Structure formats: structure tokens, C-alpha cells
């Protein structure tokens, strides 16, 4: 039982599941519906008998002026994540919270207290490995804030489209910053990233329950002659990284 999807019992620290009678994950993600570009359009649609969920997208968008937050729990100045964030902060304001500096709160408590005050939250994974996603990603998804991710996982398999922003999709940190500023200044565009909350929710799966379920399935016995070879043999932590990531300081889980 590991985080890897090719494990006999894959285990994740979070899971996006359909609400109510929504389509099962096996059918694939729902696609984002057409989104309003302004409140006037939302009200007009409502008067004409349109989908009330349009109003949900608009009113759910954070109304504060704080744009980007990041919680940093490593005090080493050589951390690749800190270097990337420092560079990003030259193009857009990033509020950094850490127990290493003037903020003395336990770093684990900061997201719950501050995350809802921001439009974006940086989820830069400590390890650049296929399938590896920390619980922080799902914690952020559970709020009305858009995670900006940077890691080695296939995020499209973990969360619906337009529920996160992948830094790997941008040519540079400058282009990422410009996009975040654009969304922050256009509330209708930003609210498009909240569409999925009307159809999905975030849950914390039980690893023990999944293990128990697996034990009750009828499968032929399976053995591994060399677990180390399975764990290290497929270059799971040799995924492509953006040029703005320092390869030498990326760790493995």
C-alpha cells in the first residue's frame, strides 16, 4: 500500500468524489459548463430560467484583495521550492508564512486560518515523483481557493479540469504570475475555477478500509521477490521538470 497508482492497494491522502448522484469516476470527469463573465449575465440567466449554479460560481469567488499564499516548513535556504517562490515573488506578491521567521505559529495551523483569505495557494511538492501528491493539495481543494501546483503527478487524474493551475503549463514563472494577476483582476474568469464544487467534494479515504476491501477480493496470490527493485526500478522520480526548478535539490519521498 503506497501512494503509487500501480500499487496493489493505492493510497492517497485525499480524493475528489462525485456529490449525490453524480457520475462515477470511472466515467471520467465532468467538463466545465459555460461560465458567466459578469454578474449581470448571471442575473439575466436566472430571470430566464437558467441554471442557478451560475450564481454559485460567482458568489463563491473570494472577494478579498490577497492574491497568493504559501506555507513554508523548511528552514534550509537551499530548498528548491523556496528558490522558485522567491523568483515568482519578483513578478507577483506572495505572502509566505513559516515558523522559521517572524511567524511563530505552528506551520500546520496556518492554512486553516489564512487560506480562505487568498485567491491562490501554492502547492509546490517537496518531491518530483510520478503519482506523488501531498495531503496539502486536497486540503487546499477543500476550500474556496485555487491551488497552484508544481510536482510530478498527473493532476488531471486526481482533480477535475479547471480546479487547479499547473505551473508546468507555463513557459516561465513570469508567465505564471501574469496569468494569476489576470485571474485576480477578472472575478468572472477566476470563478470558473470553482465550477466543480457544485458536482464534487473532497474526502479523506481510509487506507485500512481499502486494505480490508482488497483482502476480501478474490485474486491469485501475488509476491514480490525484490521490493526495492519495484520501488526504485521505474524512474518514478525522474519525471520531466520545468527549467525553473533546481534539479539537484529535489528530494524523493
Automatic annotation (TrEMBL):
Keywords: Glycosyltransferase, Golgi apparatus, Membrane, Transferase, Transmembrane
Membrane topology: Single-pass type II membrane protein
UniProt superkingdom: Eukaryota
Subcellular localization(s) per the UniProt record: Golgi apparatus membrane; Golgi apparatus, Golgi stack membrane
Entries under Gene3D superfamilies matching the protein: Glycosyl transferase family 10, C-terminal domain
Domain Fucosyltransferase C-terminal: 63-230
Entries under InterPro entries matching the protein: Glyco_tran_10_C (IPR055270), Glyco_trans_10 (IPR001503), GT10-like_C_sf (IPR038577)
One Pfam assignment: Glyco_transf_10
Top-level class of the enzyme under EC nomenclature: transferase
Family: Belongs to the glycosyltransferase 10 family.
Protein name: Fucosyltransferase
